[in-house]
């Protein structure tokens, strides 16, 4: 096996999808596979989750790539698009760019597409204040879009929770109320729930849910792991020990000498670094697992390697597997806490140098 390797489990992906279906049993599922399916491989995940009712990506280029891989599902482009040529391409490929700006409405009212867009979604600014049309302006926008002749009479309303990972936050209820009011006024289907809302706010499931992180077996809540929600981690990140080295008291390790041996020590060097997406913020604070035993990461993370304290793991040797995250011994949520970040970032920034090994598929 080539190292470092992100092993992607199709079985885990499908298990997590079933958990979504069990949890939001009356809702259709728009599976979010943007950012190369959160680092898991967009084409792989699309095939694994082929029972999704639709897929969502962030950008036009991601949607085009899915079509090139033979994906025929409805594909929603969450960031939308802003040029006539891009709308023409979206119509040609049966893509669904989200409308979230009045200028997009203006543009579609001024051009004629070769074929109409279908499976259309309006992004409503229900309180996040990032992308979206204000609730009071939604009905006017829909009327203008219908009048343009460029969009079939198939519309849904979409919004995004700003604080759904903060269970009990009153702002979540305010956003939900905005969308329920619009649903009552327009009679249109609503898609609001992200992973945290799927798990914590059943009243928000409505017509569609839009899970992302939980599909990959990762918890959206601080201090929790995916296994706490009966999810299975879909990615295991591993590499290999490529060297071991004995240190004397007072000898320093790595760039800047940020770690100094206070006793006779043994270190290992593993083949992974920030060039692979293993965060430099894990310097001197993370852990790895070798032969079932946790070992500290010491010194600064380099571009291609990390150093590991093997003093209490004397049996470790060159060629041993090094688990970076993804099994019960060391979950990605815990590693994210070491790096003072969120697990989304760790999995999405893995570079193309990291081999993806798909299993169970």
From TrEMBL:
Active site, renumbered: 34 (proton acceptor), 255 (proton acceptor)
Enzyme class per UniProt: isomerase
Any one of the GO BP annotations: D-alanine biosynthetic process
SUPFAM superfamilies in the record: Alanine racemase C-terminal domain-like, PLP-binding barrel
Cofactor: pyridoxal 5'-phosphate
HAMAP family from the UniProt entry: Ala_racemase
Similarity comment: Belongs to the alanine racemase family.
NCBIfam families: alr
Record-given protein name: Alanine racemase
Organism: Methylophaga sulfidovorans
């Amino acid at each position: 096996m080539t190292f470092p390797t992100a092993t992607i489990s199709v079985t885990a992906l499908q298990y997590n999808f079933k958990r979504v279906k069990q949890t939001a049993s009356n809702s259709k599922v728009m599976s979010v596979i943007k950012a190369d399916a959160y680092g898991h491989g967009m084409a792989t995940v699309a095939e694994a989750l082929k029972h999704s009712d639709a897929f969502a990506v962030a950008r036009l280029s991601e949607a085009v790539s899915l079509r090139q891989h033979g994906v025929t599902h409805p594909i929603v482009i969450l960031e939308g698009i802003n040029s006539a040529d891009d709308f023409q391409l979206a119509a040609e490929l049966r893509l669904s760019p989200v409308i979230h700006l009045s200028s997009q409405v203006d543009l579609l009212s001024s051009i004629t597409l070769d074929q109409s867009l279908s499976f259309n979604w309006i992004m409503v600014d229900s309180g996040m204040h990032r992308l979206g049309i204000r609730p009071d302006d939604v009905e006017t926008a829909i009327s203008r879009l219908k009048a343009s002749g460029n969009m079939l009479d198939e519309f849904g309303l979409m919004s995004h929770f700003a604080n759904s990972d903060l269970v009990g936050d009153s702002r979540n209820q305010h956003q939900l109320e905005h969308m329920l009011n619009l649903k009552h006024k327009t009679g249109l289907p609503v898609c609001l729930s992200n992973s945290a809302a799927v798990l914590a706010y059943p009243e928000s499931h409505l017509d569609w849910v839009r899970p992302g992180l939980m599909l990959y077996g990762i918890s959206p809540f601080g201090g929790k792991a995916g296994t706490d929600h009966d999810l299975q981690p879909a990615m295991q990140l591993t590499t290999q020990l490529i060297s071991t080295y004995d240190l004397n008291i007072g000898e320093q390790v790595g760039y800047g000498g940020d770690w100094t041996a206070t006793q006779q020590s043994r270190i290992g060097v593993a083949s992974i670094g920030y060039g692979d997406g293993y965060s430099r913020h894990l310097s001197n604070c993370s852990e790895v697992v070798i032969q079932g035993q946790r070992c500290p990461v010491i010194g600064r993370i380099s571009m291609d390697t990390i150093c590991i304290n093997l003093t209490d793991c004397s049996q470790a040797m060159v060629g041993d597997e090094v688990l970076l995250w993804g099994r019960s011994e060391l979950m990605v949520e815990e590693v994210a806490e070491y790096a003072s970040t969120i697990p989304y970032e760790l999995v999405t920034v893995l570079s193309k140098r990291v081999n993806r090994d798909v299993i169970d598929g």
